[in-house]
Specification:
single chain, 402 residues, alpha/beta, Aspartate Aminotransferase, domain 2, 13 strands, globular
């Protein structure tokens, strides 16, 4: 039987509805669409700060902008190093380069695709200025040892929580554990306005600098304002702010639904030969932006690609590898394609910082070689999950054979 699964790329997999339409109507009727004069974006910031337990939240135009804002808030010197992950969206990496810093890649735990304290420590140098951790797929990094390491070295930690709304590490909500937390409002995230982002922090100085960076470094409402430093216009519009506020009211229910259905799928797939369901560190809470299987090519001929091909025949689109290659193999890094022919800021880098030899990243290649990303959203019902589980079992039987 073929059953169409809800998709987060259109209405079937989203919670958009009457509440968002009413919020948009209010904004349109007000005639005020800019956040510098409106109330929706300030209201969103206040609501999100309260929801995450943060002292400050700053809205911006995308998840990429959120990472850029966080990096800019730390104000690195040209050539400073920022340790990060090679398994992430490029939007979490290019902001580092735009601020003149050099991304240095840490290897990952192949079970989760996340960096760890051990892999971060191996990537540190006397030039390290900050660490960025990505809570991949909604599965939190093990933050206690990471923050202990960072504190011992005097390094701020930025959390990329684009995929991990309300996830928790050792009882603490992600985004509130490091110095700054970054969130995305892109189409497929737990909360969506199509595009948008949020940055949270408890540090008032970082919050002020983040807000300035969103507003071309112009301190709205302060006496004697001036453009204080080089910055961009990364503002969110009132229309997006209105939709986001309505979406936030649904977030806790969205997360509960995603987690409940993921637990049902995990139970249904338990014990399958050659397949591992998501591994979550003890004490952590995964909020399932996507549901990922680890497929062992030694026991499943053709690995994730073969299983994906069989699932596709049954009408289920999945993504082997998530990203086709580690970020450091993309041209911007491998060919140092940045500003004209300058190669800047790579020209400031230590040779070791730009050594992307595969043998330095065994966990990264193992993680990508084995991961199969399944579609996931809050509109899945028990029927959808049971259909997906049955499809995986049938596809696996065909690939493995008698």
């Amino acid at each position: 039987m073929t059953l169409a699964l809800p998709s987060d790329q259109e209405a079937s997999g989203r919670t958009l509805g009457a509440e968002e339409l009413e919020a948009l109507r209010e904004v349109i009727e007000s005639g005020t669409l800019t956040s510098t004069k409106g109330k929706q974006v300030p209201g969103l910031e206040e609501r999100f700060a309260a929801l995450t337990g943060s002292a400050h939240a700053v809205a911006c135009s995308s998840g990429t902008a959120a990472v850029h804002v966080a990096i800019a808030a730390l104000d690195p010197e040209p050539g400073d190093e920022v340790v990060t992950t090679p398994i992430t969206d490029m939007g979490a990496l290019t902001p580092i380069l735009f601020q003149g810093a050099v991304p240095v890649f840490a290897d990952v735990d192949p079970r989760t695709g996340n960096v760890t304290a051990e892999t971060i420590e191996a990537a540190l140098s006397e030039r390290t200025r900050a660490v960025v951790v990505t809570h991949l797929f909604g599965n939190p990094c093990e933050m206690e040892p990471i923050t202990a390491l960072a504190a011992a070295r005097g390094l701020p930690v930025i959390e990329d929580c684009a995929q991990a709304y309300l996830a928790r590490s050792a009882g603490r909500t992600v985004g509130t554990i490091g110095a700054l937390g970054c969130f995305s409002l892109q189409q497929g995230k737990h909360v969506t306005t199509g595009e948008g982002g949020l940055v949270v922090t408890d540090d008032p100085a970082l919050a002020r600098r983040a807000r300035l960076f969103v507003n071309k470094a112009w301190p709205y409402g302060e006496p004697n304002p001036d453009h204080e430093f080089l910055a961009l216009n990364y503002r969110l519009s009132e229309l997006q702010g209105a939709v986001a506020r309505a979406q936030l009211d649904k977030l806790e229910g969205v997360v509960r639904r995603r987690v409940a259905m993921a637990e049902r799928l995990t139970a249904a797939l338990e014990g399958l030969e050659g397949i591992d369901t998501p591994w979550v560190a003890p004490g952590n809470e995964h909020t399932y932006w996507k549901y990922c299987l680890r497929v062992d090519p030694a026991r499943v001929p053709g690995g994730p690609q073969a299983l994906a091909a069989e699932l596709r025949l049954g009408g289920i689109a999945s993504a082997p590898r998530y990203i086709q290659k580690p970020a450091f193999q993309c041209a911007v890094f491998s060919n140092q394609r940045t500003f004209g022919e300058s190669r800047w800021p790579f020209t400031l880098a230590r040779p070791e910082a730009v050594d992307y030899s595969p043998e330095r990243y065994p966990g990264t290649f193992r993680a990508l070689d084995r991961v199969l990303v399944l579609p996931w959203n809050e509109r899945y019902t028990e029927e959808h999950v049971d259909h997906l589980a049955g499809s995986i079992r049938r596809a696996l039987a065909k690939v493995v054979g008698p």
